[in-house]
């Protein structure tokens, strides 16, 4: 029996996290062990708390510690606008920017014929129900600019046409971006979305 079996198992588990490979996981675990009082024990306690309390918001699909998240409960966020995103990480990215003051809807994926993912496999029916129940005036489609993301956006737009205003995020050249570093698709999208100045 190896004397480092538990440590090796922790490294293996950490290496499964996005952004961490075996080397990074090994360094992180070693640092946590060296500072177990300040890092490892508090981290283990917090992970146990989150494992016991984290849940998906019944309304929008966000992750929190209550059945309905803070965003959905906030009367200040009841603007009639719902921003539709693919994953919770996209919602959190939008919130970091602080530019959107409405509510969200997390699909939990995108439509994909190759992976046999249809509208019932992601949270599109729940989105339609929210439009009927919440006085929604605008749906903002903030889906990734991938084939599956755009297919999903077009499907949702077709389903909701004539019921609410449907918009999407602008695409193209980022602020501070240099044309020489952009891919052909981004330049093409920027040209198509051009506006008067």
TrEMBL record:
A GO MF annotation of the entry reads: DNA binding
What is one Gene Ontology biological process annotated in the Swiss-Prot or TrEMBL record? DNA repair
| Listed Gene3D superfamilies | 3.40.1360.10, 6.10.250.240, RecR Domain 1 (1.10.8.420)
Domain Toprim: start-end pairs: 80-174
Name the source's superkingdom. Answer: Bacteria
Has keyword Magnesium?
A: no
Which keywords label this protein? Answer: DNA damage, DNA recombination, DNA repair, Metal-binding, Zinc, Zinc-finger
Its biological purpose is as follows: May play a role in DNA repair. It seems to be involved in an RecBC-independent recombinational process of DNA repair. It may act with RecF and RecO.
> What protein name is recorded for this chain?
Recombination protein RecR
Q: Which organism is it from?
A: Donghicola mangrovi
Native organism taxonomy: Bacteria, Pseudomonadati, Pseudomonadota, Alphaproteobacteria, Rhodobacterales
> What gene name is given for the protein in this entry?
recR
């Amino acid at each position: 029996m190896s004397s480092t079996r538990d440590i090796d198992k922790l490294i293996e588990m950490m290496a499964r996290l996005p952004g961490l490979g075996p080397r990074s996981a090994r360094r992180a675990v070693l640092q946590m062990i060296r500072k177990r009082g300040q890092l490892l024990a508090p981290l283990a306690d917090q992970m146990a708390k989150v494992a016991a309390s984290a849940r998906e918001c019944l309304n929008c699909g966000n992750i929190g510690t209550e059945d309905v998240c803070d965003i959905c409960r906030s009367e200040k966020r009841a603007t009639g606008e719902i921003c539709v995103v693919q994953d919770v990480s996209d919602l959190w990215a939008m919130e970091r920017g602080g530019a959107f003051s409405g509510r969200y809807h997390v699909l939990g994926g995108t439509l994909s014929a190759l992976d046999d993912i249809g509208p019932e496999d992601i949270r599109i029916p729940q989105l339609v129900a929210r439009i009927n129940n919440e006085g929604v005036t605008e749906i903002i489609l903030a889906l990734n600019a991938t084939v599956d993301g755009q297919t999903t956006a077009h499907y949702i737009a077709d389903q909701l046409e004539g019921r609410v205003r449907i918009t999407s995020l602008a695409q193209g050249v980022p602020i501070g971006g240099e044309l020489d570093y952009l891919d052909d698709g981004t330049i093409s999208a920027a040209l198509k979305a051009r506006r008067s100045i």
